[in-house]
Amino acid sequence: MEFVRTDIPEVVLFIPKVFDDYRGFFLETFRQSEFDAICGHHDFVQDNHSGSRQGSLRGLHYQLHQTQGKLVRAVVGEVFDVVVDVRLGSPTFGKWVGVFLSAENRHQLWVPPGFAHGYYVVSEWAEFYYKATDYYAPEWERGILWNDPGIGIEWPLIKGKLPTLSNKDAAAPSLAEAEVFPRGWSAEK
Predict the structure, then answer these.
(1) Model confidence pTM above 0.85
(2) Which fold does the domain 2-170 belong to in CATH?
């Protein structure tokens, strides 16, 4: 596995070594010891799997308590995956990184606690799978508007058409109005 730090150093792209032959392929998707060495130790407690049509955008979500780190990947199709730093006082607060994750490239992205996360489906259909470090807690879930001009995410919208959003995501506040992690916040428990 190759590990590539993004422009936000805590957000790490995982590029697996894939063994292809006439039967198909094999790859290792997770090894705790390597993950710990690169990202620090986190226990994963919940796995999630979603399917979405082209043009769907899910996010930008985070939990203020019961914060979730997520190891994410597309297992069918392709998505544009985005992470935004929502830790007030961080040198990268309000900055974003985006990567394409697909069944073809088999890349994964580590989204640490303290970051908002979302993805946009660029293929006709995509299935998205992720491991989370804490349980989903709807009472602590928060969101940021997908097209907040203060963040300036460059979504690869299909033919410039607006994405399909949930009502909750369409009504999310801007980063300037959102409840975020306070100065000095740490994911350490």
Answers:
(1) yes
(2) Jelly Rolls (2.60.120)
